[in-house]
Amino acid sequence: MGILIRSILVIRLRAFGDTLLSTPLLRSLKLAYPEARLDVLVEPGMAPLLSGLPYVDGLVLFDRPALKARGWWPELKASLALYARLRQSHYDLVLDPLGTPRTAWMCLATGAAVRVGFDFRGRRWAYTKRVPIPQERQYMALVTAELLKPLGLGLDGLALDFPLSPEARDWARQALAGLGFGPQEKPVLASPAGGWGLKRYAPEKLGQALALLGRQSLVLWGPGEQELAQAVAGAAQGSAQLAPKTSFQQLAGLIAEAGLVLSCDGANKHLAVALGTPSLTLFGPTSWVAWHPPADPRHQALHLGLDCMPCEALECRLPRRACLDDLEPAQVAEAARGMLATLEA
User: Fold this and answer.
1) In this predicted structure, what is the pLDDT of residue 71?
2) Would you say the pTM of this structure is higher than 0.90?
3) Could you report the per-residue pLDDT of 117-160, keeping only the tens digit for each?
């Protein structure tokens, strides 16, 4: 490029899965520019996903949801303060994988000599290098990595990274022993939550699938999800129990010690991929191409493949949600049983 790259910023606002799916991009940037400082702009809730990764040097935190709840004036003041901070940091290279109007303004505010983003209408002015918008669905880690191409860089594989602490893994092993699992026993973890309701498999059906699977399972839950997890465990007819209350690291420790994670398309599925734990994902409105690692037998997607799928909608536009409601517990149990038989052979 003819420009000395001493500092890099990646603007990675929003969701859990998007953040994890950006780790291949971050890793590739550090490999290409090992002497450069690499910072990531994230919301505070996403910080645990990146803190401790060896190739991330610093996090810039911006809690837009909390600021928005306080009103437009505090949000505006905080945004202007952030723009000033970004300008004063003198980044040489900035990448904007999200490409919203807000992140485009953040990218422009840095004043970096090289600013890379997707060529969305109305936002192309923010970038010095514009990347064509992919016309076909592909795994989101690959989509994000498109930003490397105008820099002449390649992608360092599709592996997702998560900095699991040894203490969290030890806690998980002790917790599983206390719940009656043997030292070599790898439990099935069921994760009923999802980013929005339309993505969630009905809790009674998930519980029935666990009952048909016929082995002891744990139901994962986080803040505000305990009632949902209890409904799953109750429908499992004694085949499942609630996982203990966990910190984020402890949750990751349980997933790392599991034999299979059975979930909808949500955060815990992506965490399982990052930790190398096999997963079976039940897809409804979201894309199994975009949100599922390609050609990896350890991770399988189960979906009905209806004509209306995937719609990516927040609410179903049809009289009934057939994509998940017509997926029978017996189909789920059979798919999980088949995966476990292969994995444990």
Assistant:
1) 85
2) yes
3) 999 999 999 999 999 999 899 999 999 999 999 999 999 999 99
Regions in the chain scoring below 50 on pLDDT: none
- Give the tens place of pLDDT for each residue, 85-123: 999 999 999 999 999 999 999 999 999 999 999 999 999
Instruction: Report whether the peptide linkage leading into residue 24 is cis, meaning its omega lies within 30 degrees of zero.
Output: no
Side-chain half-sphere exposure of 95, counting CA atoms within 13 A: 23
CB 263 within 8 A of CB 191: yes
Domains of the chain: 7-151 (3.40.50.2000), 166-343 (3.40.50.2000)
